[in-house]
Amino acid sequence: MSKPSFREDILNAGLKVMLRTGYEGASVRDICAAAGAPHGSFTNHFRSKEAFAEEVLNRYFAHTKELVKQALCDVALTPRKRLQRYLDIISGVLADDDWNRGCLIGDFSLETVSRSELLRGRLEAIFQEWRGPFASCIAEAQVEGEIDSAFDPVDLAEFLLASWEGAILRMKVERGPAALDRFKNIVFQTIFKEHK
User: Fold this and answer.
1) Do 1-46 and 50-187 come out as alike in CATH topology?
2) CA–CA separation, 35 vs 29, rounded Å?
3) How does pLDDT run across 92-104, given as a tens digit for each residue?
4) Is the entire prediction scored with pTM above 0.85?
5) CATH number for the domain whose boundaries are 1-46
6) Which of 6, 163, 176, 182 has a 20 to 30 Å separation from 190 between CA atoms?
7) Would you kindly state where each structural domain of the chain is located, as residue ranges?
8) What does 52-78 look like in DSSP terms, one character per residue?
9) Is 50-187 CATH 1.10.357.10?
């Protein structure tokens, strides 16, 4: 009789542990304990903590892309409203966790890029892929005359994501929504102000 595989349990537990404690703070022992898996199961399924973290990051990004799709593909809303909808969805997710966790992509960007070329490269690819739907939505808003066309849509998408990640970092420090609300209020009254 074959032994049960703990791979999925370890990945699911690892995502929760890393969201709470970060890459450095998440020990293999803690991850296995949270998964209810023997310590040896980790090394049976993952060649290193770094490789494991890449899989956790991919899992997190897959979920994030679903949230992006939910907001930016909602054709019942104008493109500008879709951008607002995405930020509101993420704010709701963070509120559900009482402002105690941030974005794993942002957290890993701070923690791992100077130590792991594997994770740095994966994060760079994630940011490039992540900005695509935002750039398309912004371009659509510009074509429809909803927002000013003074800036390139890709540059605006980069600005939006980078600034939003910064607001999430402040939210984690403050343990409240003020930084997110401030960002949304300012960005939609300036850069993404309704163009008439």
Assistant:
1) no
2) 10
3) 999 999 999 999 9
4) yes
5) 1.10.10.60
6) 176
7) 1-46, 50-187
8) HHHHHHHHHHHHHHHHHHHHHT-TTS-
9) yes
